[in-house]
């Protein structure tokens, strides 16, 4: 049993010029203070206390000498020319050593800090210290310090040793036996003289009185309980669960591919080989004429009067097998490969009724190579973006480990399981799903790409005019983006805080943008954005996100400029989409736009030429303008999530429009894409439920953020946000499969029968 002594002193004198000095001398240390005890706050405000109570550094009996009496000298002095009355009381602490799984209640104040001893039981390697209080204020600090005298238990020195975190209503610190060679430590509780560090304000009664001294009495009732943390076996179970859960997706993909292969082989042996060989492309050796259902797809007009309905002489006609390579093709983005003798693209792309054959006239090899640039560029971007991020978060984690300041990182401290140098290994591990499913998606796309190449080598040239053109570059880019989202999310959760949150969202922007580009590319392969312009746009968005993090909290001018950019960008993109890229963006565009508005809306109110596109763009602009107005009025502090919401809403709007128009055109949803759509909706709904649980928030102070901390909910290892990581990875994977398989039903349909929307 460890004995501890507490010294209480009190003086009625408030004379700061002649304080009473107390010096306590022990065998291994000296402790001194003055009464009145002065604390300094913000802007050099001072607070004095006449009552001071300190716990002396305890002495533990050694096995050789056994228990012995302690000799303590207390020296009292003052330079005052008059007598000063004081009270001195020395007591022995009965409950100095904390016990496992037993709550202990006590009271502390700025001038009366408390600390207690805890010894690790024999079978416990890690414990979690939980501290709670009914009142948020006064602000307090919880510190874990090694058995060293003197103990740092005042506001100005509590940060000098050990691990510490600020606290309002709740705090939790995980402590491992390996960090304390003596297998014991002190738990120190300090009350701060002011509350601004915890998010509180300076009391209104002392505003404007910087040089005046205030004798504010601040006490706080606290309860501490120390519980054993999880064992090493739980770490192993959690890792097995994480990997096996997502490896089951690999098994499911193999089963689906095998079943599909068996079905194709049976049809081939029966002489009924389907034009779709499982890769989403045709393998028939004869052209198949598919008729468009009556009244569908924009009220199809007579093919003889449509230049887009004519069968074009593709540059690939007559190519020998094996010549479908990109290395022999030079790409010039400024050179339009559509033969001008066939028809002027300004005429084709501005027709009332457009078909896929109108927008897939360029050399397939050149277009395919153009989209492969998406893949190579995103790899380059990922390397250059990820390496500094990894270096920075390693520095953050090192600073946390060296200084012991746990206010730097916003963990869920009630479910933060350390491993090695990582303070919250569970938050990092839960991102493994993005890596595994992103790699699986790349394998699925690679399989389709290989089967497509084989089919192109053996099928008749006429089948080039069937189905959606197969370009896989954007799909590869999406797979890499999903994997990088897992890497960067893991980096962010090494030390989540206000300054590095954009690491977690940067590739989310890119994923949403690439999905929209892929959806648009499906029926507009010739006029989709190039990789350079797309990634340049993403770079602008990320720059705006960084500026929003820095200036977006209080600066009105930033929100005005951003809202104007948002609205103008929406109008410019809408114009390009409506006119299929044939509206020139130059100095004369404002005059042309005004002329169009005058002739079509004022002079005579005519029906829009492209009604479906107009409806989509009107709804899209209303959504984006609503976001701009919301941001201007409310100025949300989480600017990165605000931009991500804009991207996601636009993606969902466009996907819903695409599916509605697909069904309206009498096209079908095959079982696999239908299953993926349902799975995407269900998994996203479940994921968003866990996302909005808010276990921490860097928009608030660290102490206020800890009020939202909650215990683990899965295997005693993962919290709600980890479950969000698992489910969001699966939801993104199913979303990608929707885009990959959505138009597999069109593989038997001629392109001059497939409408564009």
TrEMBL record:
Stretches with biased composition (Low complexity): 304-314
Subcellular location, record wording: Membrane
Alphabetized UniProt keyword annotations: Glycoprotein, Membrane, Signal, Transmembrane, Transmembrane helix
Pfam families (UniProt xref): SID-1_RNA_chan
Bilayer topology term: Multi-pass membrane protein
Source organism, top-level taxon: Eukaryota
Database matches in InterPro entries: SID1_TM_fam (IPR025958)
GO molecular function: double-stranded RNA binding; RNA transmembrane transporter activity
Ranges of biased composition (kind: Polar residues): 281-295
Region (Disordered), start-end ranges: 271-336
UniProt entry tagged with the keyword Glycoprotein: yes
Transmembrane segments annotated in the record for this chain: 238-262, 374-394, 432-451, 472-495, 501-520, 532-551, 557-581, 614-633, 639-660, 672-692, 723-742
Homology family: Belongs to the SID1 family.
Protein name: SIDT1 protein
Gene source species: Ceuthmochares aereus
UniProt lineage: Eukaryota, Metazoa, Chordata, Craniata, Vertebrata
């Amino acid at each position: 049993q460890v004995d501890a002594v507490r010294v209480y002193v009190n003086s009625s004198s408030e004379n700061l010029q002649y304080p009473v000095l107390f010096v306590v001398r022990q065998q291994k240390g000296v402790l001194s203070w003055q009464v009145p005890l002065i604390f300094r706050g913000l802007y050099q405000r001072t607070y004095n206390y006449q009552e001071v109570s300190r716990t002396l550094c305890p002495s533990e009996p050694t096995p050789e000498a056994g228990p012995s009496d302690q000799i303590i000298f207390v020296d009292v002095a003052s330079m005052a020319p008059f007598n000063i009355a004081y009270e001195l009381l020395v007591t022995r602490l009965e409950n100095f050593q904390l016990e496992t799984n037993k709550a202990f209640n006590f009271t502390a104040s700025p001038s009366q800090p408390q600390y207690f001893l805890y010894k690790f039981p024999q079978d416990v390697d890690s414990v979690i210290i939980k501290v709670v209080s009914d009142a948020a204020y006064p602000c307090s600090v919880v510190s874990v310090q090694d058995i060293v005298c003197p103990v740092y238990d005042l506001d100005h020195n509590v940060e000098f040793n050990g691990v510490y975190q600020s606290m309002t209503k709740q705090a939790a610190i995980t402590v491992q036996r390996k960090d304390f060679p003596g297998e014991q430590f002190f738990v120190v509780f300090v009350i701060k003289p002011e509350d601004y560090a915890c998010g509180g304000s300076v009391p209104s009664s002392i505003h404007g009185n910087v040089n005046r001294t205030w004798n504010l009495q601040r006490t706080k009732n606290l309860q501490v309980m120390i519980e054993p943390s999880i064992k090493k076996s739980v770490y192993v179970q959690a890792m097995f669960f994480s990997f096996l859960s997502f490896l089951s997706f690999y098994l499911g993909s193999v089963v689906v591919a095998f079943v599909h292969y068996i079905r194709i082989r049976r049809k081939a042996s029966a002489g009924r080989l389907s034009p779709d060989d499982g890769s989403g492309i045709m393998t028939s050796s004869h052209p198949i004429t598919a008729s468009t259902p009556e009244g569908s797809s924009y009220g199809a007009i007579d093919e003889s009067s449509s230049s887009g309905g004519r069968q074009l002489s593709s540059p690939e006609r007559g190519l020998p097998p094996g010549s479908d390579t990109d290395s022999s093709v030079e790409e010039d983005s400024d050179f339009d490969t559509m033969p001008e003798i066939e028809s002027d693209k300004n005429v084709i792309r501005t027709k009332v009724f457009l078909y896929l054959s109108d927008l897939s006239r360029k050399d397939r090899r050149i277009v395919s190579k153009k989209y492969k640039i998406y893949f190579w560029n995103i790899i380059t971007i990922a390397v250059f973006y990820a390496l500094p991020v990894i270096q920075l978060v390693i520095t953050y984690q090192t600073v946390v480990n060296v200084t012991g300041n746990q206010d730097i990182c916003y963990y869920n401290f009630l479910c933060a399981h350390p491993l090695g140098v990582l303070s919250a290994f569970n938050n990092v591990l839960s991102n493994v799903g993005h890596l595994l499913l992103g790699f699986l998606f790349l394998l699925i796309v690679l399989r389709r790409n290989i089967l497509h190449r084989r089919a192109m080598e053996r099928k008749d040239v006429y089948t080039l005019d069937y189905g959606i053109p197969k370009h896989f570059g954007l799909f590869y880019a999406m797979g890499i983006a999903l994997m990088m989202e897992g890497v960067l999310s893991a980096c962010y959760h090494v030390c989540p805080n206000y300054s590095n949150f954009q690491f977690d969202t940067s590739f989310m922007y890119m994923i949403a943008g690439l999905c929209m580009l892929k959806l648009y590319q499906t029926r507009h392969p010739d006029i989709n954005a190039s990789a350079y312009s797309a990634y340049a746009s993403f770079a602008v968005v990320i720059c705006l996100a960084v500026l929003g993090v820095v200036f977006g909290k209080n600066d009105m001018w930033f929100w005005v400029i951003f809202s104007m950019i948002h609205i103008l960008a929406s109008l410019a993109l809408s114009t390009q989409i409506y006119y299929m890229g044939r509206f020139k963006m130059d100095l004369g565009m404002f005059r042309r736009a005004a002329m169009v508005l005058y002739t079509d809306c004022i002079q005579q109110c005519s029906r829009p030429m492209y009604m479906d596109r107009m409806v989509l763009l009107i709804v899209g602009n209303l959504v984006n303008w609503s976001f701009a107005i919301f941001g201007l009025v409310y100025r949300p502090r989480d600017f990165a999530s605000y931009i991500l919401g804009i991207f996601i809403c636009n993606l969902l709007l466009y996907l819903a429009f695409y599916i509605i128009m697909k069904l309206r055109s009498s096209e079908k949803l095959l079982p696999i894409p239908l299953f993926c759509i349902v799975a995407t909706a269900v998994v996203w709904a479940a994921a968003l439920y866990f996302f909005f649980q808010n276990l921490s928030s860097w928009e608030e102070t660290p102490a206020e953020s800890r009020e939202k901390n909650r215990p683990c909910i899965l295997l005693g290892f993962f919290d709600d946000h980890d479950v969000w990581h698992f489910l969001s990875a699966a939801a993104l994977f199913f979303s990608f499969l929707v885009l990959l398989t959505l138009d597999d039903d069109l593989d038997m349909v001629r392109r001059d029968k497939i409408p564009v929307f």
